[in-house]
Amino acid sequence: MNEIALLIAATLSAGTVLAIAGLGLLINERAGIVNLGAEGLMLVAAIAGYAAAVHSGSDLLGFAAGMAAGVVLSLFFGLLVIWLNTNPYATGLALSLFGAGFSAFVGVAYTQQRLSERSHWAVPGLSDLPVLGKALFEHHPVVYLAMALAVALHFFLYRTRAGLVLRAVGESPESAHALGYPVRKIRLAAVAAGGALCGLAGAYLSIIYTPLWVEGMVAGKGWIALALTTFATWRPARVLLGAYLFGGVTMLQFHLQSEGVDISSHWLSMLPYLSTIVVLVLISRNPAWIKANMPASLGRPFKPGH
Fold first, then answer.
1. Measured CA angle at 163 (ends 162, 167), to 5 deg
2. Cut 0.90: pTM above it
3. Is the pLDDT confidence value at 168 over 60?
4. 27 close to 163: Cβ distance less than 8 angstroms
5. Does some domain include residue 299?
6. Short-list 25, 23, 21, CA closest to 199
7. What is the rounded distance in angstroms from the CA atom of residue 269 to the CA atom of residue 249?
């Protein structure tokens, strides 16, 4: 039972990175913007957050630095795509490549650095429960924040006027513009909010989940988070569940290795990415279902007056 509790706990921790990044990308796509630069953005946020935590000794400042890095890069991406109408796919890929190279260059000085002693987090009373205590109630607050974010984002999108406007911009920016809404500013705000969450995910990865800096440490999680939005049909709760599913697959490889399962480690390392491909292939078999849930203007540029 203790092994099951540890596997559940590891799944929640690993899924948190994907959940926060996926929710950020969902905000982008609900506004009609596709950002393929999540991988590079998370890498820059990871080194920014780690460097801030090393020099300040504060995890909170590290998270703030990671989020700030995410916002700055996302705003730059947004200005290019939304105002200058550059190709969003090419711009996103360029951002991803830039983030990988920049983080590797800056991170050279931090590969040998170590953070201060990590605090042990536990929910008083609940953490003492058998099995469930270790599985669910001994996590860093950011793990619970990811769950709260999914609930809050669902409420925002489907229960508030601002959320309705955001979805309207993603469905028909021309109609939203005709009603007097500043479509480009709304899209830029959505891109900034999504960048902040991707930045938080990157900072959590380097400060709490690892905690250390290694070149390329995001290791494809940005791409999996991007796939999650399609897997979840642009629904926050499904993003959360999908993140834990992929997190569980990731942790399963380590669990099988520890149990001495006679499978090549290379095959086990492929599991998260293989499952991503399989899920996307299965979803793609029903294009009508995807089209019914996908924001109608996703990836489509908007020019006022056209």
1. 120
2. yes
3. yes
4. no
5. no
6. 21
7. 10
- The answer to whether residue 30 sits within a structural domain is yes
Give the integer Cα–Cα distance in Å for 234 and 277: 18
Question: Domain span at residue 279?
Answer: 2-115+122-293
- Measured CA to CA, the distance from residue 132 to residue 122 in angstroms comes to 12
Q: Which residue bears the tokens 């599985």?
A: 135
User: Which of 114, 20, 25 minimizes the C-alpha distance to 63?
Assistant: 20
Ramachandran bin of 116, using left for φ above 0, alpha for ψ from -120 to 50, beta for the remaining angles: beta
Return the SS3 of 172.
coil
Does residue 136 surpass a pLDDT of 80? yes
> What does the pLDDT look like over 252-276, one tens digit per residue?
777 776 666 666 667 766 777 777 7
Read off the CATH number of the domain in which 212 is found: 1.10.3470.10
Residue 45: is it exposed, middle or buried by C-beta count within 10 angstroms (0-12/13-18/19+)? buried
Which residue from 294, 304, 306 is spatially nearest to 171, judged by alpha carbons? Answer: 294
Give the Cα-Cα-Cα angle 121, 197, 46 (nearest 5 degrees): 70
Scan for tokens 């090419």, then name that residue.
Answer: 90
Structural domains of the chain, count: 1
32 lies in a domain? Answer: yes
Predicted local confidence at residue 274, as pLDDT: 78
Q: Which two tokens stand for residue 295?
A: 């924001």
Asked if residue 301 belongs to a domain, the reply is no
Query: What's the rounded Cα separation, in Å, for the pair 30 and 89?
Result: 16
